[in-house]
Amino acid sequence: MSFQSPVMLIAAFVLTTVAVTFYVKLWRNRRAATPSALLPASTWRRHVPYVFLLAAIPLLLVGLARPEATVSIPRAAGTVILVFDVSNSMAADDLKPNRLVAAQAAAEAFVKAQPATVDIGVVMFSQAALTTLEPSKDHNQALNAVKRLKTNGGTSLGQAILAAMTAISGKTVTLEPEDIGYWRSATIVLFSDGEDTGGPDAEEAALRAADAGVRIQTVGIGTAQGATVEVDGYQVATALNEELLALIADTTGGSYHQASDTEALAEVTRSIDLRLTARPEEMELTAFFAGAALLLLTIGGLLMIRSHGRIV
User: Fold this and answer.
1) CA 51 to CA 29: how far, in whole Å?
2) So what's the pLDDT on residue 100?
3) Which residue ranges does the chain devote to CATH 3.40.50.410?
4) Would you tell me the crossing angle of helices 242-251 and 157-169 to the nearest 10 degrees?
5) Kind and range of the H or E element at 251?
């Protein structure tokens, strides 16, 4: 604890000592002037109101010294990378109007729900992941990046995770073991139907994220029944792979989220739990000491009225 006006601590000690000394001397003089036959057998109760009143003096003066303490304030903070599957399968319409549009709506709801203390970045991925926006506190930039997403190509979940890790750490991340730091306050939110058509192994990439302290929350886009999409003139069947998405999330200590329609998906995404961090902040405690002193003065005054019928 520190004090902005430490000289008041000296005043608190001096004035409290003077007040206590004066009270003790006054009480002894009164006792000496009272015939012994009239003295009560027990007098401690008569002192109680004055104890409360005297105890309020140092509290008030310490409050005037403007004490400060460093406290840890919990808050949702850190870095969030929104990772979007923009492969051709995301054009399937088992979520209306299609999977990608449903994912965009869910992501927009998520971004709008985040406090300004959260840095948000965007990575889109198909066969080759591409970072479209570095993490920042400008959430409008994240929203604009999400709105520009278009479907194209195949899917590489592993490459997407590594690209998100690169955005978080500022270093190129591969499956090779390399110290990229520990990023406990970072979260990857992966929007995908879970179809993985090539690239680095997704589970190994998730293990790489887990080693760096990064948690992955996966959001399943689509249904188990699936749908068909046209790719290069061919009708291709596509369905939600919940097993892989759940495995990726579990590997990093995250959670898998899935909903059966666009509205429910947006609600699920808003419920994603980010980590709470504690930020040390200086907090002035003057109000606390003043409140405590006022409470003691009130108690002392009430006890005095009860004992004497008035404040004396």
Assistant:
1) 18
2) 93
3) 77-274
4) 30
5) helix 242-251
Q: Are 224 and 242 in contact (CB under 8 A)?
A: yes
Nearest to 129 by CA among 192, 75, 186: 192
Look at phi and psi of residue 186 and say left if phi exceeds 0, alpha if psi is from -120 to 50, else beta.
beta
pLDDT along the chain (312 residues), means of 10: 79 82 77 60 68 82 79 71 93 91 89 87 82 90 93 87 94 90 91 88 96 93 90 88 95 85 65 63 79 84 70 51
Render 280-302 in DSSP notation, one character per residue: EEEEE-HHHHHHHHHHHHHHHHH
| pTM for the whole structure | 0.66
Distance CA 67, CA 178 (A): 46
Burial of 5 (0-12, 13-18, 19+ CB in 10 A): exposed
pLDDT of residue 206: 97
**Domain 77-274, CATH homologous superfamily name and number:** von Willebrand factor, type A domain (3.40.50.410)
